[in-house]
Structures
1.
Amino acid sequence: MSELRVAVIGVGAMGAFHVDSLAHRVRGARVAVVADADADRAAGVAAGVGARVETDPIAAITADDVDAVVLASPGAAHEKQVLACLEAGRPVLCEKPLTMDEPSALAVVRAEAATGRRLVQVGFMRRFDREYAALRALVESGGIGDPLMLHCVHRNPAVPEHFTSVFAMADSVVHEVDCTRFLLGEEITAVTVLTPRASSASPAGNADPMLVLFETASGRLVDVESFVRTGVGYEVRTELVAERGQATIGLDQNLVLRSAGRWGGSLAPDFVVRFGQAYDTQMQAFVDAAARGTVAGPGAWDGYAAVAVCAAGVQAVTTGRRVEVRLGERP
Ligand code: ISE
């Protein structure tokens, strides 16, 4: 195959970023088709990369001039679109969430298993970030012994009004769910959410910040500070505490400047800046694997587990109780 022909479904901010990545920073692929509910937006993005526009996402997924699919459509559309990719035998990179609830996510896992191939990659891009990859390699090497705890900080400078505590669980904390599973190599079994005094910027009735606690299958603990209206910058830090050492990533020390009697670094303004390299590396891995008719990185089961843990997290934050996670059987 010369160049992998990709259909990008949904070209809001994230989809448009993926189109740019495929067109300018990733090797071996081109954007063949762009589909979006907003036809003008699709036409504008498609024109910039010489792609054609398709108004029906399923028609784009099944088109003859498409080899692989990137889904950056709204989460509620994912289930139908991922199943269409499986039916057509097309590798798909699906942004999170895989689907909107546990039964439908498990149905995707089973549908993929029935094809006998790995075709679904879920967009947990942090796994492709250099620092997360280095931390995972450190854990695997056994260099600092058995991991015991993770301390995570996930802060956004600002978010829109619709970003409730429930939304933050599924949209932000979901990344720590996947990182926990990635770094520790085991499932999360229970979630508890503590809610301190809310920021005055938090919409009424919502908990921002919140402290989320994960328990894992082997008894490790992970705490996550989720604070999406800090008014400061985009900060994602993780400290791993192990038996013979600790390791921290996300210190934002790109450039430490001394000037005018002060010294300091700078914070990324948003996740596309902080994780720009991770998004592009993720896309390159997807393209390389899709050219071989498969996918790389986090798959349907990882997407399902994240949906299940976030559902428990939503229950935990709305009831104030500790909620256990019970995963279905892995095919
Ligand atoms: C956003 O959707 C993301 O996926 C970012 O990685 C996350 O940090 C942010 O909080 C979310 O809103």
2.
Amino acid sequence: MDSAPRNPVTAVIVVAAGSGQRLGYGMPKAKVPLGGDTILTHALRGVAAAGIAQQICVAIPPGDQELLALCDDFAQALKAEHPGTPGTGGAGQPPIVTIVDGGATRAESVRAALAALLPATEAVLVHDAARALTPEAVFHRVSHALAAGALAVIPAIPVVDTVKTVEPTTGDGAAIAPELVTGTAARETLRAVQTPQGFDLATLRRAHEAAASFDDGQAAAVTDDAMLVELLGVPVHAVRGASQSLKITTPLDLIIAEGLLEGPLGVRWVEG
Ligand code: CTP
Ligand code: MG
């Protein structure tokens, strides 16, 4: 039997439906300017440049006409660049771009996008629009692991800080400091996790179906898709991420992202 790796039919979900509270621009983060474009434009370009997707499915804030138009323009530009038939997956064929209304939480936005994938889809990468500068190499590492048989794969980087656990100080100690250290994590085993996270589609669908019945507390604790797959007991593999794949969350992150774009190397060409 032929066991050579085979590229599964792949969709990339880009979740861009968040409100960007911590960035504080008073507009959805996807629309915030970065290097003369928007955060979402950079994210979509990165996905397209990686060339791994037959479909790109973008979740945007419901009813946001500006982001709808931005995604439409992006789809038209892809078609103009690649004159082939969208979604067929051959060399030079552009991906189909699908736009869905996101939900109230990131997980709901992912679920909305999962419901809109083409029937032939076998594998899916879920990517945060907020990680607008993810290098192509990271997409490739994730999709190679899927082709090699992983059901779940995440990009991750070593943690540079020492990480401790704490609890609120009680009794007399409260006058000294608000928290008391309860332990120090073994740093060499810790990883900071990024996106795109890649999955066998059936596995991710099963994980999200299980999560749909979570109560509010459980739902709030879900910060990535791999966590849901871990709860199913499915092994999650980790490949190397990239530091320039930072999630633009606070104003400081935006300054760093601007700096990366202005830097002499040009972020897209720096190997992660
Ligand atoms: N996201 C989404 N739908 C939501 C919430 C978040 O699609 N209901 C997306 C964001 O657009 C972002 C990614 O999930 O690309 C990671 O979320 P985060 O960085 O927290 O973005 P926001 O939720 O927009 O920011 P904040 O939490 O500061 O409001
Ligand atoms: Mg958020």
3.
Amino acid sequence: MTNEVGRSAAPEPCTLVIFGGSGDLAKRKLVPALYNLLLDGMLPTSFAVLGIGRKAFSDDEFRASVKEGVQQFSRQALDEPRWKNFAPRIHYQVGAIDDPASYGTIRTRLEQIEATHQLPGNRIYYLAIPPDSFAPACEGLKQAGLVQDPKRLHPFSRVIIEKPIGQDLASAQAINATIGAVFDESQVFRIDHYLGKETVQNILVLRFANSIFEPIWNHKYIDHVQITVGEAEGVGTRATYYDGAGALRDMVQNHILQLLCLVAMEPPYSLDPDVVRNARIDVLRGLHPIVGKDVERFTVRAQYSQGTAHGKAVPGYRRESGIPPDSITETYVALKCFVENWRWAGVPFYIRTGKAMAKRASEVAVQFKDIPQILFNGNQAAPLAPNVLTLRIQPEEGMAWRIISKVPGSKAQTHPVEMNFKYGDAFSVPSPEAYERLLLDVMAGDASLFMRRDAVEASWQWVTGILDGWAAQQTRWLPEYSAGSWGPVEADRLIESDGRAWRKL
Ligand code: BG6
């Protein structure tokens, strides 16, 4: 029997206004996500899209451009008749974000679109634009009377923003203040697309919908946790952004810390969005700060050198096009951290992530404590492998339990075996893309899977401690790892000096 829990409200008829409409995100992710929701019968009955951008597209040119995106990136193939019905709901308006005059035009255009599609005036503004454009966009919307009072539930105004929400704590606070000056927190949806991934959502289901995990989910039984997010691709075409960010800001501050929150949080007392978000933020607040000289003991940063990754020759990071030859931006980071509370006292969380690694593979591995060295584990020279519960986030979505089993035969031999659960085998439907779930949640006004202002700032506060510690090191070079490997020897030492080892993926 399948039970339905979670989002209580249904997605409501609305217009999605995409600032940065002619950009990559709209084409690769947003419109394909909407199209899949349409095919799955999940889109509200009345719905429209208005792309806003500097490019001089007509409605038809914009439709043709996003159609290409659907053809290339959609989870489900393009079906011409369905697209033909959907396309008239997609519109485009040329507009410059920093020109206050644009917003009057946007308002008129929105009113026309709403009249055509019989929409009630609910509007979702997706700011797919650089953070330095957030202020003029918010101000322009406010001045044009395009932001509803949050106390009036209908018609609603909501805003979606994406990372990077800042470079450090101070800049994140400034962005939040800019948005907060125009929108109430209840109207703000900060996307961390990892929270929209099926396997990531499943962490809470696994922990709190099964009786066997919670009793052992603590320092008495768990030896340590490893979180790995490996990417095979190098920096690609995003040199300017990436070189200003690096792996800690790009992956740890948001996605990986959110994974850690889900693994480490206390059971929330309900599935109410704020109750769940409060439980997540407690983990961030409990993270032991890594500051000053502690960065040397608890962190490793590195850059990829020449090698082969994802089947292609990769130049060293400093030789990638657009990267300064003396860059000290890390493309890899490994960390050891502790959540200081009763449940996790003394349990290290090891984190590693990098570009140009051996393969694309992300997982959370919970390693349980060794059993006593008696009975089947009596051979001190060859101790039994510990139990490990692995939550595979991607690409082979699933879960595995490593347990010790008897080898069939007359001898009392044991061997580690894996009990494997694969999403693809267990459920015949493919997992939706993260953006599908997230857009639907915004239409329904459910903020559970979004980052609240205090959470963004709490995670930046912790990360800024590390960034400051690194800056004080005044390093001119970083350790290297060959592209296509699993990281530098320094990262091996980080974990091996504790008598543990990175998992082989
Ligand atoms: C983005 C980062 O947030 O996440 C990228 O900016 C990274 O650098 C991407 O490649 C990873 O997302 P996914 O869903 O491919 O794991």
4.
Amino acid sequence: MRMKLNTLPPKLLIINDISGVGRCSMSVSLPVVSACKVQGIPVPTSVFSNHTGFPTHLKIDLTRQLKDYFAALNTLSMNWDGIYCGYLGAKEQLHAISHYYDSLTEKPLFIIDPVMGDHGRAYQHITPEFCNHMKDFLSRGDIITPNLTEACLLTDMPYPEHDCTDSELSAISKKLHALGVKKCIITGCPKGDTFLNYISDNCGNVNTVSTKKAGPGYPGTGDIFVSIVSALTLRGFSLKECTTQAAHFIASCISYSQSLSDDTLQGVIFEPLLSDLVTLSSQERESK
Ligand code: PXL
């Protein structure tokens, strides 16, 4: 199979923190989007020694540098095909990114992962005030990818104690579209022995992709998921195809990781499996 493209790789600006140990955020996004034949351009929002699931971490905050970073990018007069925005630590970061995005005359596809919590709970630094700022920020999103916890936080709905029904997911996704979002994937909704990804758009179209639960939860799998969805969308795959491929890749990474180690804190061992992404992204797609 031919592995080379005869066009320039799409350019994806990745706005996220970079965490050293624990395979998450920028540390997984860059290799994953490269394997999907997309050029990832990092905009680091903070530097962590390791992700926050470890007992301690060092954080170097770059909020104050963000404005200058965007100004430096502006002087290059380049256009991006997409912007993928992940973990953000403060409302000031939301403001700096909104300001930059609003100033762009040619709007790239804007993919926002509103990283705010998991397993029914908000992360420690997430306040109701930050959540309100996130709602405003999301109105710019072409594609948003909340997990079920984040979808509930954003719509002021209680996190369901039972497996979600389709009508509950439909109600949550309608509330998310009411924020101004065009397309939405609510990821990782538990349903029996599967996880359901609920895909919707603001015209009322719905699709679902479910995958068998492959093992325990690992940090960083959400970041791998959205990196694949962002990159493959820019390569012309439909949202349903992107979601299917991303969910399968993560399930393979979880099974493979479990065969080698019990240490979930290190994130999924994805490096030896990256060639799967190279192969699948070698197909040219025409429809978006
Ligand atoms: O994977 C999301 C994420 C990103 N960055 C940092 C994190 C986490 C999740 O815990 O701690 C620093």
